Structures are given as structure tokens and as C-alpha cells.
Amino acid sequence: MTSPSEDPADLDRAAPEAEIAARAAAVRNWGRWGEADVLGTLNFIEPAKRVEAAALVREGTVVSLSQAFDTNGPQKGWRRRTNPVHTMTDTGTDAERGSQGFPHGIGGADDVIAMPLQCSTQWDGLGHIFDHGNAWNGRRAGDVVTSDGDLVTGIEHAASVIVSRGVLLDVGRHLEPDTGELADGYAITARDLESTIAAQGPSSAVGRGDIVVVRTGQYARARRDGWGDYAGGPAPGLSLTTAAWLHRTEIAAIATDTWGFEVRPNEFDVPAFQPLHQVAIPNMGLTIGEMWDLDGLAEICAQRGQWDFLLSAAPLPITGAVGSPINPVAIL
């Protein structure tokens, strides 16, 4: 079978179904780790990879890669995605007034938060996206995710898994050195990823079990100019044609500083929605991260000329969830 082209110019912009199907077939990992698998490409993270990653820690510098979780976030209510609502259930005022009912003068504060699991920095789990009714590993979507949650590939299975060598590919800085920001709608190609690696040097080489974080610069722009249409609007991101690169590199996971990971608008002249998600999650078994803050890490990596680090990005073990908020940290 001829492999699909990795040049976006060769995409048939009137045929998303055919283009998605060709790439899904080319990268499909169903059965690769057995019929019962629940981790997909996270299986590439082996103990030796974590030992390799731990050796990258030289100074003990820790950088959070998370956006804030508060009401000033980017969400606008699409498909009931809202920003977090944080409510205090006990306060210092209650303690001062002695209204909490505790003995010998002790008081306290308590709080609760209500939010969609994918409203800020997060992982897309393997139960998040389906392809023609199929979930990861060829299971029927309705057998996997029900009103009780993801009964098979819930995000809790990854709770102790996502610690590995992280690699920052600052594509924004590489392609747009004056601004460090790719234009909305720019489709990042496999050639762009490889040229970024070549420009950054050996520490950004990508291989099996690595977690790749791609900086486009869109988050920096949103932080400076306001959210605008950051959530769901035009954005730089990976081209559908990078599916083969994501597959052959055998990376464990990938994350970006954008809302949707892939380029928006998507690369078709007829209705289409997140075609790379449709290829990568249910077919390849790839865990995808979105809305990561990579700006501080990018500055440190550029100053040091070192682009790899120990990355810890555990999801909350929320039973049956198809995604999870996270506070990923890079340790250098």
C-alpha cells in the first residue's frame, strides 16, 4: 500500500473522509499491545526511558507547564465547556465569627471547584475520540464509553504512567524568529518538525517513549492580546499529514500550546472537524495534550541550548474519565 503523502499540498481538500481513512489505515496500532490494551502509545514509556529522563535533571529547576484554572480562562461555553468556577465553602470570616462549630478556637477554610475536565491544561484520553463508531484498539465506542464513563480506557489507567523524557520543539521560534509566533491557520508539517530538531540540535532528537511538546506561540499571543477565539477558533497546529511522523517516531504522547493541537481551520474546503484527532487517538492510540503553557520553558531551553528534560504529567485518576486536567512539570 502506498503511504499517504506528507505534503499538505497533496491533500484532496474536497475529500476528508478518504484522506482520514488512508492515514488511519497507515498508522493503526490496533492489537499491537494485545486485545486488552488500555494505554496505546504510552506503552512506549519503559523503565529505562524514565531512568534516561531522570539523568537530565542537573539543577533541580522545575517549570510548571500549566495554564491557570480560573474564571479568566479561554472557554466560551461550546459543548458545555466553561471555565472553572471556584467557590469557598468555609472562609476566614466564618472562623473569626466562630460560626464553624469547632472547639478551642480552631478554624479553617474549605472550597470546591466545578469545571469540565478539559477546560484548561489537559490530556485527551483514549476514550475521547472515535472513528466511525470505533474506539481505541478496534472496540465499539458504545461498549467503551457509556453514561457511567469510560469503562475500558478511563484516564485512571495512565495515572502512574506519564513520566518520561520530554522534548520541546519550539516551532514558533524556529520558523518565526522575530516574533516566536506562528500565524493562526499555519499547518505544521513533518518537514517543519524535522527542521526544528535540526536547528535546535541533538538534545531535541525525538524517539521511542518521548513526550513531545510543540510550541506554536499562540498562547503567548493570547496572553498578550486577550483570549479572542483561542478556544476553538483559527490556530496554528499540526497538519493532518504529520500522522505518519507521529507514528514512525514512536513517541508516547504529544502536547501543544493551543486549544486543539491540530491546525484550525482544518485543511479541507468542505466541512471537517479535527481530522488528526480522528486518526491519532482511536487508531494510533496516541495521548494528546492541549493548552499547555510552554513559554517559560522555551526561554530556559533557548538560554541553555538544551531542549530535553524530565517531564511528569500525571492525570488525576478520575475513574472512567476521557480526559483530565493536569499540572505538567518539566524538571531540569
Automatic annotation (TrEMBL):
GO MF assignments: hydrolase activity
InterPro entries: KFase/CYL, KFase_sf
UniProt-listed SUPFAM superfamilies: Putative cyclase
A Pfam entry, by short name: Cyclase
Keyword Hydrolase: yes
Entry keywords, A to Z: Hydrolase
Keyword Hydrolase included in the entry's annotation: yes
Chain segments carrying region Disordered: 68-105
Broadest EC class assigned to this enzyme: hydrolase
Listed EC numbers: 3.5.-.-
PANTHER family assigned to the protein according to its UniProt record, in alphabetical order: CYCLASE, PTHR34861
Name this polypeptide is given: Cyclase family protein
